Structure formats: structure tokens, C-alpha cells
Amino acid sequence: MVLWNTTLENGFFLVGILQDSKYPGMVCATITFFYLVAVISNGLLILLIAMDKRFHVPMYFLLSQLSLMDLLLTTMISPKILVDYLRGQSTISFSGCAVQMFLMLIIGGAEDTLLAFMSYDRYVAIRHPLQYMVFMRPKVCWSMVATCWLLSFMNGLVHTIYTMHLPFCRTREITHLMCEIPALLKLACTDTSKYQFMVYTMGVTLLLFPLSVILASYTLVLTAVFHMPSKQGREKALFTCSSHLTVVGLFYGPAVFMYVLPSAYHSSQQDNILSMFYTIITPSLNPLIYSLRNKDVLGALKKLVGKVTLAPKL
Question: 226-229: long-range contacts at Cβ-Cβ below 8 A with a sequence spacing of 24 or more?
């Protein structure tokens, strides 16, 4: 119990990617760059979708939610890394660790489920275009978003409370970029094998079930696309699907490696790199993937930039 109080008072040391790198300054500059790209690109995409009536449709509504989640996800990690580098010490309080874990579980879980709903949206749009606005009416869209946040909130709350009530009696060094369950369980001085199995089972379920929905949806979508009589229609449908599948790959690739593969198959250094990838790099790439090849989004962006440029002259 004394050791628990010691951890509670002093918190933890985060031994992450900066400590593992020979060039921490370069790593920090890279992280800062990706964070700025994520903030600007996701912020602009959210603004465009909110301002332009052409984007007030289910697909772009869900996309704006994805941008919001990406923005929150990277903001949970990147600024702290920069501050820790400038301070020369990477520490986090016990309560700060609990909050970070809780929010990461909520945002990551919500994005996981949202990607499945986005694949369903594409399935309805391509397989049932005449009934699209019936199946994807505003009430349904808001219900999807609420489901994402509610399920991830419940999952995050249960895991955070249980994990942070474990007695920590080993070193206070977390060999990870942030406070995540697998890294904290290594510090526990009690048998956590049953809980680790539960975490593994929940991770597999929460990751593989939405991924199965995505794969099933796109199998049906691609079947319909290749039977389209119009070449232009096929190309447009394939473009939309390819953008979403790229985002799915960027999110699920590192996540499956982190949470589905047993810990014996990966090291703490690999975990740090993968965590940086899906919490810092991926949020900056997602809006670019959706917008750079999208003529409607690029057109709206040029229009917005034109208004901002002309404003001072008026």
C-alpha cells in the first residue's frame, strides 16, 4: 500500500521515442511538423464541411467527425512531447496518466467504430442509391456518432478504473510514448494474467469486429462497382472507396499489431514507433487523403482562401 501511495504522489517517467532516439531534436521537430499539419488540415476540413452546404450530406458529416477525432487524438500526445523535450524531462502525474489513458481509449475506440459506419455509408450509397437519404437520414447519422462515443466511453471508463487501481511496485518508468494499458501492466506487482487476457479479448473484439464489417461492406461494394455500366461512375466510386480503404489501412495496421498480436511478437521500441504512427502521423494524413484528390473539397478550399484573401481589400 505504501508503494501505491508513492506512485500516486510521484507519477511516472515516460521513456518513449525521444529517449530511444539518437537525435531527439530531429524527432521532436518531425512530430511538431506532423502535428501542425494535422491541426491545419483537419481544422480546415471541419470548417469547409460546416460552411459549405454542398457538404451537408452523410458522407461528409461522418468525415467531419473523423477529422474531429483525429484532431483530438493527436492533441492528446504531440504538445506534451514538445513540452517534455523543452523541459528536458518526460514525466506524467498519476492523475494525468489516468486521464490520458481514458481519453486515448475513448477517442481511439470511437474512431475504430466510426470507420465501420463510414464503410456502411459507402455500401448504402453504391448498392442502394435511391434509398440513400432514407437509410442515412440525419437521425441515423447522429445515432451512429453517439454509438461510437458511448461504446468507447464505457470501454475506456472500465479499463481506466481497473488499471489505475492496480498496485504498482516496480520502477516508475513507462517504456512507452504514452500511458497505455499494456505498458502499465508491466509495472504492476500483482498477477495480471487474467486481466491481460480480458484486455486482449476486448481488443480483438473491438478491432476485428468493425474490421470484419468494413471488409464485408467493401466486398459487396466492389461487386456492385464492377457491374456498373458507366465507366465514369465506376471510377468515381472506386476513388471514394480507395480513399476510405487507405485510411482504414493506416488505422488498423498499427492497431492490430499493437493490440491483437501477443506481446511476445513485438518490442517496446516497435510499440513506440507504431504508437507515434497512429496517434501523430495518421491524423495528419487522413484529411490529405480525403481532400487532395477530391475536386469538390479542393474547389471549396480555393473559394475559402479567395474570400480570406479579398477580405482585407474590402
Answer: none
How far apart CA 314 and CA 135 sit, in angstroms, is: 44
In 165-275, beta strands by DSSP E: 173-174
Specify the higher pLDDT residue, 15 or 68: 68
Which CA distances in Å does 143 have to 132, 148, 266? Answer: 16, 9, 37
Residue 112's nearest CA partner among 305, 297, 260 is 260
Q: C-alpha grid cell for residue 29?
A: 521537430
At 4, the pLDDT band (50, 70, 90 cuts) reads very low
The model's pTM is: 0.88
Q: Are the C-beta atoms of 276 and 31 separated by less than 8 Å? A: yes
Asked if 185 contacts 164 with a C-beta cutoff of 8 angstroms, the reply is no
State the Cα–Cα distance between residues 61 and 38, nearest whole angstrom.
18
Mean pLDDT score, 217-221: 88
How far apart are the C-alpha atoms of 84 and 88, rounded to whole Å?
Answer: 6
Q: 255: closest CA among 74, 97, 112?
A: 112
* 207 vs 211: CA distance, rounded Å: 6
Average pLDDT over residues 29-46: 93
C-alpha cell at 306: 479567395
CB 12 within 8 A of CB 94: yes
Span 58-78, mean pLDDT?
93
Instruction: Between 297 and 287, name the one with better pLDDT.
Output: 287
| Ramachandran bin of 263, using left for φ above 0, alpha for ψ from -120 to 50, beta for the remaining angles | alpha
The per-residue pLDDT for 314 is 52
Please state, in angstroms and rounded to a whole number, the distance separating the CA atoms of residues 63 and 257: 25
Give the separation between CA 83 and CA 72, rounded to whole angstroms: 17
Question: Phi then psi for 241, rounded to 5 degrees?
Answer: -70, -40
φ and ψ at residue 91, rounded to 5 degrees: -125, 160
Give me the pLDDT at residue 1, please. Answer: 41
